[in-house]
Amino acid sequence: MGTSIAILKGINVGGHKKIKMAELRDLLSEEGLLENIKTYIQSGNIIFNSSEYNTATLEHFIQKKIKAHYGFEVQTIVISAKNLQYIINENPFSEIDIKRLHCCFFKSEPIIQNRQKLEIFDASPDQFKTAKDCVYICCATERYSQARINNSVAEKILKINCTTRNWKTCLKLIEIADAL
């Protein structure tokens, strides 16, 4: 049985796509595909065990359950705990205050031409580093909302769906995953 993390995009923001985490845990446990389900904060972070290792299958399952129960679609990215640990270990900005750090997770692998476009994007004074399945973002200030590189920019240039979490959340997600 493997441990994975699902990150949902755009829920409980500004009164839109409201999902209560306790209700979501109950909903996702109904069929037994996901076990030991934990959630972290209201922005849609789900940590669970499953005998299913195919992330696309897990994403489809979660999206289907949410659509059927709540009536709206929610983009979902599932990452194995092992992969999240690797992403954390490879952080090129590990010496920077975590209040300035974010990770933009890719839903799918971008084509090389779009990746190259992102890599030459001028985000100064912010910094970023593109990896295989994410972009590490180091904001010039603690205000991600003012960053020149963010989730919307990454999606537009890469032409794929992405979801971003701050570094504190990334660390908490792996901590919870390790405890399952």
From TrEMBL:
InterPro entries assigned: DUF1697
Pfam families (UniProt xref): DUF1697 (PF08002)
UniProt xrefs under Gene3D superfamilies: SP0830-like domains
Protein's UniProt name: DUF1697 domain-containing protein
Organism the protein comes from: Zunongwangia endophytica
